[in-house]
Amino acid sequence: MADPVSPIKSADSIIQVLLVDDQAIIAEGIRRMLEGEKDMRLHYCADPSKAIDTAIDVSATVILQDLVMPDVDGMTLVRFFRANHATKDIPVIVLSSKEDPAIKRDAFGYGASDYLVKLPDQIELIARIRAHARNYIMQTERDAAFFALREMKKQLEASNRKLQKLSMLDGLTGISNRRHFDATLEDTLASAKSKENSLSLILIDIDYFKRFNDSYGHQGGDDCLIRVAKTLNSECKNAEDLAARYGGEEFVILLPDTNEAQALAVAERIRHAVQDLCIEHKASDVSKFVTLSLGISSSLPLGKCNAQQL
Questions:
Q1: Does residue 267 lie within any of the structural domains?
Q2: Does the annotation mark 249 as catalytic?
Q3: pTM for this structure?
Q4: Which one of the listed residues 186, 249, 250, 268 is annotated catalytic?
Q5: Looking at the structure, do residues 48 and 133 belong to the same domain, yes or no?
Q6: Nearest 5 degrees, angle CA 103-CA 107-CA 110?
């Protein structure tokens, strides 16, 4: 077990001691007490109104402060230290000219970490500074480790969400894949049964797509699939509508709470939207541009109706 008065061994081994006292003679006395301590550096602030800024600037490890000072009294200064986010955890050792239990009580009540009658014994002062510095450094390191773990957890959760999202998307087109569609269909079907709502599917196939690939190459085919998928996705006007890539050139659109007439209107809108893309297709038997074949399945699912029956 480490000796509580031994020098601190850490990455930042210098103990930054801030003395707040309006009396220069006290500051000189403290300086002499600490001058032989290689791991301590004393900073002096004679103006209590600048104490918090100074503590932040020097990254104080321990604060020594007088109780009786002009402008800002010591009790108020302790309270200010504790109220400031940057200094609230820094140990504050109060220096007082009086050994008064009532004053001690008030000092601790305002948030002081320790209480010494000035000028204190050199050995005791150094020992108390080291003890408070060690506790503060350990707390700071624990807080930093906790913060790092929390950030790692956040990053891991974000990565998991991203992976989960990616697992639901088609790698080429960026819309939902068949796996996501199948899972969503089961949930949507169950909801439609319980609410007795209509449910529609639009099955979509790009006409003569094999010929398109043969004519324009796989890159041209991929570009065509991406443009068609983007168009299908943009035609899903309701939040619960879902466009998915079902196979090579096959797509499907899930339309909850949609009857056959409404689904037919959506299908017509999609057909015209893809036609308006004017994607050249020299090998098609039906048009000089890419066209779609669409089929609609609508139902009011009841009882044992399953996805295959739909």
A1: yes
A2: yes
A3: 0.54
A4: 249
A5: yes
A6: 140
